[in-house]
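Input (structure):
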């Protein structure tokens, strides 16, 4: 199997962690791909895959995922998916996610409303489900 540098596209060895041609950190690019794949998985037809992707993106504190995840929140009617999303947005914890959480308080769904309120009252990041 042939390997190529993700930056300069020259042929490298499988064991190379740094590209000998351009100095690119190969692992850094692999991780970026992983995040990208998770973001793409948000559109997966299987709900469990979507839920897992949301969960992992929270653990990664992926800021890249914030917009697609908020979009998904608005599209889905599934309360448990919405709860997983709130958890992840809380874990990412950037101003955009906090702003969104404040809007969610107006939700018609009692469970979602309470969860958002709880996250905010506990100072966002200190909130933990389960
Ligand atoms: Zn290279």
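Output (sequence):
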């Amino acid at each position: 199997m042939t390997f190529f540098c993700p930056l300069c596209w020259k042929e490298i060895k499988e064991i190379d962690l740094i590209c000998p041609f351009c100095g690119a950190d190969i692992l850094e690019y692999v991780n970026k791909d992983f995040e990208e794949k998770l973001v793409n998985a948000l559109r997966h037809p299987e709900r469990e895959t979507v839920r897992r992707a949301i969960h992992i993106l929270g653990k990664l504190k992926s800021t890249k995922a914030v917009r697609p995840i908020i979009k998904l929140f608005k599209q889905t009617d599934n309360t448990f998916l919405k709860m997983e999303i709130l958890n992840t947005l809380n874990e990412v914890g950037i101003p955009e996610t906090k702003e969104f959480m404040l809007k969610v308080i107006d939700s018609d769904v009692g469970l979602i409303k309470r969860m958002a309120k709880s996250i905010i009252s506990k100072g966002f990041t200190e909130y933990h489900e389960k």
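Notes: The pocket of zinc ion is lined by residues 5, 7-8, 10, 19, 21-22, 24 (CB under 6 Å). The chain has a mean pLDDT of 88.
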